[in-house]
Amino acid sequence: MAQVRRQANLPRPSWGWQDAAECRGEDLILFFGPDGERQPEREIRERKAKAVCMRCPVRNECLDYAVSRPEKYGTWGGLNEDERASERRRRMRRANAA
């Protein structure tokens, strides 16, 4: 008998904030990078992506979405994968302390 994969009980996202995103129309490769990207190129690309995020009016909504999912890849809300993992842990500690 085939086993049914259960989806996590995550709230359905509201995508309205994306209409005002500064990254709209940008090349996705800027935020997600190509396969086989080397570290020096990644650092330059991420710096450029983060510059777009820093002037974005919906940066906080984007970051909240990515941290709550969690999005495993790319630059979201001005943070890369490792930075979002740290932010996720920080938010969990803060929630547990409350």
UniProtKB/TrEMBL annotation:
Domain named 4Fe-4S Wbl-type is located at: 22-86
Q: Report if keyword Disulfide bond is assigned.
A: yes
Q: Which domain of life is it from?
A: Bacteria
Task: Quote the InterPro entries the UniProt record gives.
Answer: 4FE4S_WBL, Whib
Annotated localization: Cytoplasm
Annotated region Disordered: where? Answer: 77-98
Q: Mind listing the UniProt keywords for this protein, alphabetically?
A: 4Fe-4S, Cytoplasm, Disulfide bond, DNA-binding, Iron, Iron-sulfur, Metal-binding, Transcription, Transcription regulation
**Post-translational modification as stated in the protein's UniProt record:** The Fe-S cluster can be nitrosylated by nitric oxide (NO). Upon Fe-S cluster removal intramolecular disulfide bonds are formed.
| Main localization category | cytoplasm
Give the record's family classification: Belongs to the WhiB family.
**What PANTHER family does the entry give?**
TRANSCRIPTIONAL REGULATOR WHID-RELATED
Protein known as: Transcriptional regulator WhiB
Query: Where does this protein come from, organism-wise?
Result: Actinoallomurus spadix
Its gene name is whiB
